[in-house]
Structure formats: C-alpha cells, structure tokens
Specification:
heterodimer; A: 393 residues; 73% helix; B: Rossmann fold; six-stranded mixed sheet; four-stranded antiparallel sheet
Chain lengths: 393, 302
C-alpha cells in the first residue's frame, strides 16, 4: 500500500467524521448568521444616514427638483414628497415619517423639524433658497438665468490632493478586518481541533493500533490535511455566503475587492494552517489527556491571539507603519496580518512574495521538527513528555 | 527457511535503569497457539509491542518467515494491545472498515470482512453504534474484530481474555483455535492459566524479562522432580526408603517426591510389601504451580 493511500485514508476519516458533527454545522450556521446580521446592519445604517424624506407644501413644492439636485451634490440622498394638508404633515414630522416639512413661498420659507434638524439639509435648503432668489432678481435685471448658469458652470477650484484618499478605503478596511478575523478564527479553531484529535488518539490508545500499520508522519499528515480541508470548506462556505449577502445589500463591491480578498484569504489560510497545525499536533502529542491539553496549547494560541489583536489595531491606525510591516513578514504573524494588509492595498508585491517565501521555509522547518516531536512522543502515555526529551530521541 | 514462523530472537530493551527484556527468545509456528504467561511487569507487553514495531528493541530481532519484520510485513499482523484502543466516537462498522483499509484492503473487501466479523462475534445489533456506547465486553469483541478484520497472517494478542464473560471467552477461544487451524501462528498473553493450559499448544513462562521455560504443557508439567501419590492403610514405610521424601501426608494418602534415579516401581513394591495399595499415580504439577514456582524463584533471585 502506498503512502499516498494511507495518508488519504486518514485524511478522509478526519474530514468525514468532523463534517458530520453537529458542532461543525452549528458553528458554521452561527458564523453565517453573525456575518449576515453585520451586513444587514451595515446596509440599514447606510440607508439611515444618507436618506432624508422632506415634505413640501404649497408653493414650496416647486423646490423639489433643485433641492434633490443640490442635495446630491452634497452627497446626501433626499426624497421629496408633496403634502397637501400642513397639519397632517406636521404630525408626520412628529412621528418621524418625515425628516422635515418645508412650507411657504421663497424667499420666506419655513422648515419644521422634530428635534435639532439635519445640518446638511438646512444648508442645502438655504443654498436652494438663495439660488431661487438670485434667479428671480436676475430675471428682473434682464439677464436670463440660463446665461448665468452657463458662465458659472465652468468656474470651479482646481483641487490637487497631496495624499489622495482611496474612495474605497472604508470598504477595503472592512474587508481586511473580516479576512483577518476569519483567518484568526480558522487557525485557532482548526489548530485546536488537530491538537484534540492527537490527544483523543493518545488517550483512547487507538494510536497504538494505528501505528502498527501507519508511520507517524502518515498519520500526522493525514490528520492535518483532513482537518485543514474541513476548515477550508467552512471558510469557503462562510465567504461565499458573506459575499453573496454583501452584494445583495450593496455593502461592498464584490466583483473586484471581494474576489481578491477571497483568493488571498484561501492562500494564507493554507500557509497558516500548515504552519500552525504541525505545532499544535506536536504540542498535543506531549500530553496524554484532554485536561492537560490547555497548558501546552496556551503559548501557541497566545501567538495567534497577539497577532490578531495587535495586528488589527495597527492595521486600523497605520497599515503601512514599520511595526505592522515587519510583523506581517514574520511567519507566525503573516497568515493573519498579510492578507489584511493585502486587502487594504498597502502591501507591495515584494513584501507579499517575501512573506510567502518565509512562510514556506518556516513550514518546512516546523514540519520536520514537529513531526519528530510527534513521532517520539505520541506513543509515550502517562506523564507529560518533556519537549527536550522528545527532541533528543 | 522456516515457513510461517514468527521468531523472537534475543530481544533486549531497557527503559533508563529498568531492564524490561533481557535476551528474550521464543518462536511461534504456523498453526500453533502460543500462550505467554508471566507475572505483571515480566516483559510480556514490551515483547509484543516490539514485535509490532510500536517499540524499538535495543538489540535482537523479530523475524517472520526467516526475514526481519519490516513495515510491510507488520501490516499482515493482527494486534490487540493491552491498553484497548478504538475511536470512542466512531461507529463499530466504520471503525472496522477503516482499520481494514489501513491494513491494505480495498473498500469493498474491507466492508465484506468487517460485516463478516461483526456477525461472527455477535455484534450485528450494535454495528451502527458508537464504540463508547458499547459495554466493555462488547468493546472487547470489537477490539478482537479489529485485530482480525484484515485477515492477518500472524496474531499477537495482549490479554485477549481479560474482562470477558464465559460466553465471550468461548467465542474468543473458538476463533483463536480456528485461526490457528488455518495455519496462522497465534500468540497471546494471559493470566488465566487454566485457560492457557486448556487452549494452548505451547506455553512460554516469562520472568524478569526473559523466557524461563517454554514447551508444550505436557513437557512443562513432566519436567522437574517426579512426584507420586500413594494411598495405602499405613504410610510409615515410605520414610524408610532411600531417595524418597514425604512432602504431604493426609490420613492414608501421601505425596512423595523422588530423588533423581529412584525408580517408581521400587516404591510400589515397598508399598505392596506392607499392605494393599488403593491408589498409585504420578502427580504432575499444574501450570499454576509451575508458574508459582517460576515467580517465587524469580523473587528469590531478585
């Protein structure tokens, strides 16, 4: 029997037995629900901020078009409604169905609001009003408004940006953070799963039967591939649903940003998982019972948690800063930070390539070392095996 | 080149200061049931784990058909470790199919064989249950099925009878016998000496990491100092014979131990000269007595 068949048998068992568990299904559903909630919340907040409903009554109704145009120029979406009875409309303002009610004829407009009123809306209305008055006076002076409008159209300040702001920066940051969070979750959860699997085999002693027919590295590799595939499946399901929802609610631009983030996310998940899974497995092979597992896993989990927490803060603050740049190149932190920085669009190609090369080198070294520790320690049940002993043998 | 023989040749193993095995040698031939007995910590489990390659010996060699056992030949061994081991959350059938596949069977073959052993060992109702939901006795049956499911060429079983009810003991004995008759060398360890005595073709007694005695049960029992049981009205005559020691006296019945070269017929004549003899037989030590002998000798030497 070939090694490939042995490894694939182990991987298949790990995959099938994990995907069938309720915790996998429930876990995936919960994450999707949280993500969906976030997307919906975003789109609702987005709507609320940008759209005002203004009731126009009497002569004010003729302001509907200029008001909407002007508002659009300010980046606000205004919906206008003609109202017939001012009394009803006032009640609607009180209820919140209308954001403002405008009555009277230019130049003496009245605006009724519930609380303090929207500043942008007030400014917009003032502008519209001034314009109306100006047009009326120009007409009296004999100049047609069209002539004035034509000569005004070409007049504007030429703006030169010293540090141009990416119009998609907000979206990029959101995607970067989500990618980093998903990778953090996947590495931690599936790394721990590998560790639990190793200890389960050790504590149930089934490992002795397995190792009478498998070599330690075959068992380890099969386990890592099988559970890594489960993690990848979950990541893909979550990402696909997340991107689908986001595009349905117009929260992010799926076609370019989202697709790229998904690709880098998968790449870095694979690199990160192979890097961490062997470490998790080697650490787990040192102990014989689930209760002892936490103590050996803490240093590894802490590294991932630090990478995530510190990385997130640095990424929001200064994604191109020296600290976050250096951290994102180092193999233990790269799988979480680099995809985040890539999504933000602040990682130059050479840095990405360097980080990938370093990660691959680290995987080779860790797999060799971790495989050795695992092979030496996995059959030694009872007291915790000292790392030095496992390495020396 | 010996065919179908598992040879354990002078294997030694030490854990730090503790010597677990010291030049342990024995062989198990095709179609033979070999019982492995010895007190706790004598080295039985270590020897079996070395045979399976789960442990590496410091020196010595394990051979199958005259060739050093390597990774591929190990696949052909059926193994039941002392510490029972199965995936607790895996279903009985899935587990057996998986183990059969790992030992090189194709998927269909593995299914057929797993179903076959499940039926054979009376586990049909439990085939879709998780192993952890089974009683210990049933888990033990699954464990045996796990050792047999890939139709191994050699069977190495560490304490296969411990924790079994009498019915399961019978099933297990029958299966082992059958396997041996099919030409598979079977070696198992046990503390149930009466069972070993009844079942095994040959027995090896282990003490302090090496083989103290091995052979058929008859060979082992006939070895050592001959003893006679004599029943006659008086037993005083015995003390007068040279080379005869009375070691037990119970009414009209006594047990005599004969020194080397003393003919039992001389003893019979001496007894008949005094009166009628109602019983005259050779007493052979049971395996338990032999075992106790080995263990106490070992204790004295240590």
């Amino acid at each position: 029997m070939t090694s490939a068949r042995s490894v694939s048998l182990v991987a298949k068992r790990e995959f099938v037995s994990k995907v069938r568990t309720r915790s996998f299904l429930v876990g995936t559903a919960v994450i999707i629900a949280v993500l969906a909630g976030y997307v919906v919340l975003q789109s609702v907040l987005f709507d609320d901020q940008q759209r005002s409903v203004v009731g126009l009554s009497g002569q004010a109704t003729q302001l509907a078009d200029p008001l909407r145009e002007k508002a659009r120029a300010f980046g606000v979406d205004v919906e206008t409604r003609d109202v017939t009875t001012a009394g009803d409309a006032e009640q609607q303002v009180r209820d919140g169905a209308l954001d403002a009610l405008v009555t009277g004829a230019p130049p003496e407009l009245k605006m009724i609001v519930k609380g303090s009123g929207d500043e942008v809306l007030t400014t917009t209305l003032n502008d519209v009003l001034r314009q109306q008055v100006l047009i009326a006076q120009l007409a009296e002076a004999g100049t047609t408004p069209q002539e004035v409008a034509q000569s005004l159209a070409g007049v504007k300040v030429d703006v030169t940006a010293l540090e141009p702001v990416d119009p998609q920066r907000g979206q990029r940051l959101a995607i970067g953070l989500i990618v980093a969070a998903l990778l953090y979750y996947s590495l931690l959860v599936y790394g721990t799963m590998v560790a639990q699997g190793v200890v389960e085999e050790k504590s149930s002693r089934v490992v002795e039967i397995l190792l009478a027919t498998l070599r330690p590295w075959q068992l380890l590799l099969g386990k890592v591939i099988g559970l890594g595939a489960v993690g990848l499946l979950q990541l893909l399901v979550i990402s696909t649903v997340g991107l689908g929802l986001s595009s349905a609610f117009d929260v992010i631009d799926v076609s370019t940003l989202g697709g790229a983030a998904l690709l880098t996310g998968v790449l870095w998940y694979l690199l990160g998982f192979f890097l961490y899974a062997t470490v998790f497995a080697a650490a787990a092979s040192l102990v014989s019972r689930q209760e002892e597992l936490q103590s050996v896993l803490t240093p590894i989990s802490m590294t991932i948690i630090v990478a995530f927490v510190a990385g997130i803060n640095l990424m929001i603050g200064s994604p191109s800063g020296t600290t976050v740049t250096v951290l994102s190149l180092l193999p233990p932190f790269a799988p979480i930070l680099m995809p985040g920085r890539m999504a933000l669009g602040v990682a130059p190609a050479w840095q990405v390539v360097l980080a990938v090369v370093l990660a691959l080198a680290a995987i080779a070294a860790i797999t060799w070392l971790g495989g050795k520790v695992y092979a030496n320690a996995v059959l030694r049940t009872g007291a915790r095996v000292k790392l030095r002993e496992a390495l020396r043998l | 080149m010996p065919e179908g023989v598992l040879e354990i040749d002078r294997i030694s193993k030490r854990y730090g200061e503790v010597v677990a095995l010291r030049d342990m040698s024995f062989d198990v031939r095709a179609g033979e049931l070999f019982g492995f007995v010895g007190s706790n910590g004598a080295g039985k489990t270590t020897a079996m784990r070395i045979a399976l390659g789960v442990l590496v010996a410091d020196s010595g060699e394990v051979r199958w058909n005259g060739r050093t056992v390597d990774f591929d030949t190990r696949r052909r061994i059926g193994y039941m470790p002392e510490e029972r081991g199965l995936y607790p959350r895996m279903k009985v059938l899935d587990q057996l199919v998986y183990l059969a596949e790992l030992h090189g069977m194709g998927t269909n073959e593995a299914h057929t064989s797993a179903e076959n052993w499940i039926a054979r060992l009376g586990l049909r109702d439990r085939r879709s249950d998780e192993v952890q939901r089974l009683s210990l006795g049933n888990q033990q049956r699954v464990q045996l099925a796990a050792a047999l499911v890939h139709e191994p060429d050699v069977l190495v079983l560490d304490e296969p009878f411990s924790g079994l009810d009498p019915v399961a003991v019978d099933v297990m004995s029958q299966v082992l016998r059958e396997k041996a008759s099919a030409g598979v060398p079977v070696v198992f360890s046990s503390h149930q000496l009466d069972l070993v005595e009844r079942l095994c073709d040959r027995v090896g007694i282990v003490g302090a990491g090496s083989m103290v005695a091995s052979g058929t049960v008859d060979e082992l029992r006939s070895g050592g100092t001959p003893r006679l049981v004599v029943e006659s009205p008086t037993t005083d005559w015995a003390a007068t014979l040279g080379g005869v020691r009375v070691i037990e006296k119970n009414g009209t019945r006594c047990v005599l131990e004969l020194a080397d070269g003393v003919d039992d017929q001389t003893v019979l004549h001496a007894a008949l000269a005094v009166g009628p003899v109602h019983e005259f037989s050779r007493q052979r030590p049971s395996l338990t007595e032999l075992f106790r002998n080995v263990v106490t000798t070992e204790g004295r030497n240590a």
